[in-house]
Amino acid sequence: MDLRYLGTSKRSGRKSDLRYNCPACGDTKFHLYVNIDTGVYHCFHCGLKGKAVQDLRYIQAAKPEVVERVAKKQTSDHFVDLSEDSIVQTIALNYWLSRGFTIEEAKKYNIKVGTENLTIAIPVEDSDGKFVFYQERMILPVDDRKYLFPRDAQVSRMLFSWHRAKKMHMIVLVEGVMDAMALGDVGVALFGKQLHDDQLALMNHSDVKKAVLWLDPDARREQIQAVAKLEPWLLVDEVLKTPPGIKDASEFREKLGNEKLVAFVKGFT
Ligand SMILES: [Zn+2]
To answer: How far is the CA of 42 from the centre of ligand 1 (A)?
Structure first.
């Protein structure tokens, strides 16, 4: 097996495994473990894994193009299903599963693969459930960028998954779409740390009676502002006490499982 394209390697604890820098996440600490007999690979930094390490050639070849498109703030134009039909689809599917999501959830949220930027494309719908645009989660983050929006996306006037959550009695407001999906129908994303007045107006015209605000621990200022606006709804008016080392809902589910996340959310009601 020729693995020279992966660059220098280090030995691991096991004879059959070599460690490389993962080409997907820009890892520099040799987190990618490759079984040199079978080709099975797993990056313990970004979670990327698969059965054929040769597939990573594709990632390496595509990366300069992705970096260039992201620098120009171009979103993908082509979207395909999450499947094993091609290498990029397989990589995306692996990524989706490694984040703790299921095939059923991919169907429920109608998840696609953005082939140009190697992304998980998440449809953002309006309050009636009509498709508006794709928000893309980059599988290969470029610098610090993880998400791509179309230039004209007016996210301050929308709430992610609102057409599902608006019928619920209680909702959980989170920053990102991955967190909202991890929470299921009660999960609603603000597309950032701020709660905007147009978003609050949506809540005012809904069946929602109670809300939990779950921002990342670094959003102190935004937390205070949002708490003031959400006063009639709020079940908890302080920063949520998550288990040690867990900052958001998707991380919670990825590390501790769905049952514990459901129990954690139930604990507020
Ligand atoms: Zn990685």
So the answer is: 8
CATH, domain range 59-154: 3.90.980.10
Q: Residue 227: how many CB atoms within 10 A of its CB?
A: 17
Q: What is the pTM of this model?
A: 0.86
Task: Give the distance (Å) from ligand 1 centre to CA of residue 60.
Answer: 12
Per-residue pLDDT tens for 136-168? 998 877 777 889 999 899 999 999 999 999 999
Q: What's the CA-to-centroid distance between 21 and ligand 1, angstroms?
A: 8
Distance in Å, CA 64 to ligand 1 centroid: 17
Nearest to 216 by CA among 179, 266, 253: 179
pLDDT tens per residue across span 14-42: 999 999 998 877 788 999 999 999 999 99
Give yes or no for a contact between 48 and 24, defined as CB atoms under 8 angstroms apart: yes
Q: CATH homologous superfamily for 4-55?
A: Zinc finger, CHC2-typedomain (3.90.580.10)
Ligand 1 mean position to 119 CA, how many Å? 15
